[in-house]
């Protein structure tokens, strides 16, 4: 059974995250992994004229693409974060929208050459609901790319997690974890022509790798 989300509680959680994660001195930058300067870059998106980032967070990746001339839009649940990113990256041309991702993809008809998520909404949203909506928002041959930590062995499906420590107000979210082959199967069932999921090793032995998934629309 899919995890049930309380949107108001989720919004409060991500507003709290925005207050701690956003850095006023940050520069545009794009990377798929949790390690600076590690792994591939935006070339996994191809050469898109338009992109949508779902769960765009601090906006650094979107600003990077916008500065390169891409029509770049990001969706994030936190109004605090969207206000910060809109102000910070105003000169880049990137656009930031405050919305719940499933609602946004359902209600808006715009299509994109690429949709992507970097430790973002693809990690926190039920893939059985998200993937078909992403597929509908892609142009023919468009790509969907996302990255996040790989599943802990034996812990698959929605994983509940408290945020901000284990004392104080109960703030939690759900994250979705599967083996690479299962991610591929979920994507092809959602209508993607091809899907490739792999775990990229960390740059240091025994450190956490990165799940990197790329799917192509027919």
UniProtKB/TrEMBL annotation:
Alphabetically ordered keywords of this record: Methyltransferase, Transferase
Record-linked CDD domains: AdoMet_MTases
GO terms under biological process: methylation
GO function terms (MF aspect): methyltransferase activity
Name of the molecule in the record: Class I SAM-dependent methyltransferase
UniProt keyword Transferase, yes or no: yes
PANTHER family reported for this sequence: TRANS-ACONITATE 2-METHYLTRANSFERASE-RELATED (PTHR43861)
Organism from which the protein derives: Streptomyces spinosisporus
Source lineage: Bacteria, Bacillati, Actinomycetota, Actinomycetes, Kitasatosporales
């Amino acid at each position: 059974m899919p995890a049930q989300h309380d949107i108001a509680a989720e919004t409060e959680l991500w507003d709290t995250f925005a207050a701690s994660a956003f850095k006023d001195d940050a520069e545009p930058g794009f990377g798929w992994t949790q390690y600076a300067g590690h792994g591939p870059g935006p070339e996994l998106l191809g050469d898109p004229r338009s992109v949508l980032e779902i769960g765009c967070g601090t906006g650094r990746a979107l600003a990077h693409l916008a500065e390169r001339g891409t029509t770049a839009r990001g969706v994030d649940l936190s109004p605090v974060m969207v206000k910060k990113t809109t102000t910070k990256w105003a000169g880049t041309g990137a656009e930031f929208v405050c919305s719940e991702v499933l609602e946004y993809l359902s209600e808006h008809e715009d299509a994109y050459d690429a949709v992507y998520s970097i430790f973002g909404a693809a990690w926190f949203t039920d893939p059985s609901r998200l993937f078909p909506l992403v597929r509908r928002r892609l142009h023919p041959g468009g790509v969907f790319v996302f990255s996040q930590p790989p599943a802990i062995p034996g812990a698959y499906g929605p994983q509940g997690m408290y945020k901000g420590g284990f004392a104080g107000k109960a703030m939690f979210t759900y994250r979705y974890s599967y083996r690479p082959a299962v991610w591929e199967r979920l994507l092809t069932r959602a209508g993607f022509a091809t899907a490739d999921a792999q775990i990229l090793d960390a740059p240091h032995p025994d450190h956490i790798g990165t799940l990197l998934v790329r799917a192509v629309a027919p």
